[in-house]
Amino acid sequence: MPFALFSGVCSAAPVVAQPVAETAVNPAEEWVEMPNDLHWVRNSAEYKALTRQVYRQAEMELLKLKESGILDSTKNWAVALDADETILDNSLFAKEQRGAAFDPVAWNDWCRRIEAPAVPGSLEFLNLVKELGGKIAVVTNRSVVVTKETKKNLKRLGVDFDVILLKDEESDKHPRWDLLKSGKAKKGLEPLELLMFFGDNIHDFPDTHQDLRNKDTDAYSLFGIKYFVLPNPTYGSFPKNPKL
User: Which of 35, 160, 200, 236 is deepest in the core (most CB within 10 A)?
Assistant: First the structure.
């Protein structure tokens, strides 16, 4: 119920509070308290530990490949990464939206601000990739209309990427991974062997879908070795799953 606060001195005449007119409330303004999933991402020690843990595990696997001679025998190798919630932390955008429905215009405006910080652990891993002679391929479903700004954001953070492929019309990443493997992704870039994949959504990994959740341990054999998942409890393809 709307209310008004009054201040002043006592008066002989009674003071009658005047009714406050009802005003339209923006649904986003009803988001009184930050939900726990976003609070966890932005403010928990666990989130920052977990993202570093994922990238540290990837570093260990990459060094194993180096020790085994695979990196030296592979002419052109790369790691393929999603951008948002994998390299770039967009939790500030979610905080500012205050629970409003996803708006692509607002999202593109956020991308153009070039303010997303790095997901903890990502920069150290990517530096190791370059030190070991690998290439960095960013495959993101950000729209091509924010290509310039996305490149600037990554470069501002020190990400020395070799190629970035954004979404034109198709959100499926398989065609873009195929471009990387065929050498058609960028002029002057030779065919790449993609040794590792990183993302926060199950669709960031080849031939994987939400039905993976119903399969046994063997179906997860590449995770932690070739596939590396970053935590994102705030959005993705999982909300459509049955809530059992």
Answer: 200
CATH code of residue 203: 3.40.50.1000
Three-class SS state of 168? coil
Residue 87 is classified by DSSP as T
User: Other CB atoms closer than 10 Å to residue 80's CB: what's the count?
Assistant: 26
Q: Tens digits of per-residue pLDDT, 112-146?
A: 999 999 999 999 999 999 999 999 999 999 999 99
Cβ contact 147:164 at 8 Å:
yes
- Single-letter code of the amino acid located at 138: V
Residue type, 39: H
Of the chain, the end-to-end C-alpha distance in Å amounts to: 37
CA distance 238 to 26: 27
Instruction: Decide the pairing of beta strands 227-229 and 163-167.
Output: unpaired
**Residue 82 domain boundaries:** 55-233
Q: Which two tokens stand for residue 188?
A: 């002057």
Structure tokens at 59: 């570093």
Under DSSP, is residue 143 helix (H, G, I), strand (E, B) or coil?
A: strand
Residue 182 falls within a domain, yes or no? yes
- Distance, in Å, from the CA atom of 86 to the CA atom of 228, rounded to the nearest integer, reads 10
pTM of the model: 0.87
Q: Structural domain tally of the chain?
A: 1
